Amino acid sequence: MQIILISGLSGSGKSVALNVLEDASYYVVDNLPATLLPQLVAYLRDAGYRRVAVAVDVRSGANIAALPQQVDQLRGMVDDLRFIFLEARDDALIARFSETRRKHPLAQEGVSLEEAIRQERDLLSEIAELGHRVDTSELQANTLRAWVKDFVDIEATEGLTLMFQSFGFKYGIPLDADLVFDVRCLPNPHYDLRLRPLTGRDQPVIDFLAGVPEVGRMAEDIRRFVDTWLPAYVRDNRSYLTVAIGCTGGKHRSVYLAEWLAERFRDRVRVLVRHRSAARRASDTAGNGAQ
């Protein structure tokens, strides 16, 4: 039996994630009190359900504090348990609530939206460490849908999944990053008019950066650092390690290095690659952020 748990901040995209899983034929339960998780899973398992997705968040009230204990119990009940925690920057959440005119579940009388978001972030701070964190601040709904599908499609085996994520510093450091490397000191293809419209996945940009000795040294230094400390993260029983590579716009250097690094580790651990700049460019031509 496979269980996908969804939690996170209100407005960070939980409904998008649940819809993806429901479309993929998961049995979906939204807003379940954490204390009822074992009973629900036992009932659905006995009823023959094999793929279940459950959303548990601050709407459960004080019950949310029981989630870590319930997660430990569930690991002994099912073959495959995965946990996605969605979050976003305060400014992105405020904009989403303003656009949809929804009320934050903690925004009671005398509590502003900003205060409610800070309170919710505090309440969920420990729970965030239980799962695979995804910062949806700059993501469009379609990008989040694709990332959730990637998460579900990962082979269910023991061990750590290593994710290399490119981003642009001018859009902010991703909240879900575990390790952050700044590569803005490297030569920037942006200043070559032929390369400017391309990305670090295009061959002309790859050829340009591969020919710069400083880029090679930086790439090898990051590879060596991750290679040295990866066993420590594995011993810490981490399910996911997100290595964020940032340049100015998140389009050329960081994309190239994220792809280069991913290729060096694929024969050792499960690897994912994500490029936040691609999501950002989509948002420049369309609205509808992850809700």
TrEMBL record:
Domain RapZ-like N-terminal: 1-151
InterPro entries: P-loop_NTPase, RapZ-like, RapZ-like_N, RapZ_C
All residue ranges annotated as the RapZ C-terminal domain in the record: 161-277
Residues reported in the UniProt entry to bind GTP: D57, V58, R59, S60
Keyword field contains Phosphoprotein: no
NCBIfam families: PRK05416.1
Protein name stated in the entry: RNase adapter RapZ
